[in-house]
Amino acid sequence: MDAREADYAQFVRTRTHALLRSAYLLTGDQHLAEDLVQEALARTHRAWSRLDRVENAEAYARKVMYHAQVSIWRRPKVAEVLPPDFEPDRRRGADDPADAAVERLVLRRALLTLSAKQRAVIVLRFFEDHTEAEAAQMLGVSVSTVKTQTGRALDRLRSMLPDLRVLTEVPEAGR
């Protein structure tokens, strides 16, 4: 194995988990996330010899992943069937360690009710901490589209989950 292939193998070993987390947040499904990461890694491998610096590989893979997800949005839609609503039992004590797990499940469920575009802007803006302009560029949409989709997504999440403090904070202007 030559040095470039060894660099690629090292990249895959060290960064796949981070890419998978982002892909899961974009898709809302573990299997779709794995497919998205696999596609991004395959395209990154094909472009590996063209990358100027190995340090750019993750940015390239993420951009490929976002573009692949956008192309999925453009495909004909098939109706999704979500399981019945899950309401956590709030009678438990505040120190119950299961509460955090329940909140994550409720948040995940709420994120799945968002459209794919809304989920993508929430992931890019708040999970990966990109600016509106960066998110717009990555998704191939205008900044105003990112702002609109972010606002609608946050409004929806706030209405569905009024007791989660992190969703009621107002994002910084221009971020």
From TrEMBL:
Q: Which residues form the RNA polymerase sigma factor 70 region 4 type domain?
A: 106-157
Keywords carried by this UniProt record: DNA-binding, Sigma factor, Transcription, Transcription regulation
Transmembrane stretches in the record are none
SUPFAM superfamilies recorded for this chain? Sigma2 domain of RNA polymerase sigma factors, Sigma3 and sigma4 domains of RNA polymerase sigma factors
List each copy of the RNA polymerase sigma-70 region domain by range.
Answer: 17-75
The text of the family note is: Belongs to the sigma-70 factor family. ECF subfamily.
| Name under which the protein is recorded | SigE family RNA polymerase sigma factor
Per the UniProt record, the source organism is: Paractinoplanes pyxinae
